[in-house]
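Re-run with default settings, no changes from the original entry. Doing this only to confirm the output is reproducible before filing.
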Amino acid sequence: MTTAERMPTQHGRRAVLADGEQQPGLGMPRRSDVDDGGVGVDVHSPSAGATARPAADGLPSRDRSNVALWDERHLRAATRAAGVALWAWNVDTDAIIMDERAFDLWGIPVAEDIITFETLSRNIHPADLLRVRSAFLATRSIVGLYEIDFRILHDGDIRWISARGQGDDADIAERIMFGIFLDVTQRKQAEEANELLAGEMSHRVTNLLQIATALTHMSSRSASTKEEMAQALASRLMALGRAQGLVRPMPGHKVEAALLGDLLAVLLAPYDEQGATVRIRISVPKMRVGESSSTTLALVVHELATNAAKYGALSTAVGTLDVSCSVHDDDVVVVWTERGSPPVVAPTTSSGFGSRLIERTVSAQLGGSIAFDWSSEGVVVTLRMSKRRMEA
């Protein structure tokens, strides 16, 4: 049984032209077939008396939009090239007919006998289901073209679909409405990546300005003259630039593998104070950080150091920072301990952009997790990573 034969109406294979109107005055089509996706396409000969003279480009000169050009083979090639999936909806029976591409897109077996909105709703992302259901019920009352983007769950992955059609019964034929599905997953992922990049850039610029202010205060505490302060501040800013190069390398510049202790020393150098009594202590085993994970780990440590300089132990003259590490099989645990910081209060609202960024980074790229202990003496951060992922 083909897809077209499942339409619960005798008009399931009726001719519909490319512009959505039925061909007038032709009665039954001269030839009707079902494309590889199950949508009927009829081919009619031109109207009686019409003369189609070939032009230089091979198209009839009388009418370049002549419907006879858009036969089954041409339409099938166009929809396949555009990645378009087709659907038809019987507004009386609620039955939905889809072509093969639509079945693949939704992840529904072609053998499914009856397709309705409730059938499709089983695959719609729960967060989008109510919105999509409301839009579906309002389809016939919408004036003009409509479009709705939503997520579906497909083999454990999230896929974005765009459903498009014509509302207000404008192109309805024999109680059947027509439209298309498009897979817009890549477009949505690109939009999300751009939004994340824009948020990261805004967050980073704000952080750099706040870090510069913090480094100025640090330099003023350890300098006795303005010349000493200028030299100390310049040294810190240069060290910050080196650390920034690890966090966000220039295009074409590859970050080489390094030892964990050396990587931490470079990233924390801007916040150290000459003459201070053990301001920053680093105690880690000799272990390698691979090229692919150096930038990722640098981003996490840089974010923690930035917060320490803005709000934590590195924002005061007496604060200290201890960074230690232990290794158990494939489990690497880095403990970041701040002491002597201003009073610490655990966040009561949802995490900020920086916290979400490092949580996502640690989970997705380092195969680990990050936890915060908001002790009254100072925050303690426990970073767990996969040794195999860290050395890659």
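Residues 192-390 form a domain with the Heat Shock Protein 90 fold (CATH 3.30.565.10). The chain has two domains: 4-123+170-180, 192-390.
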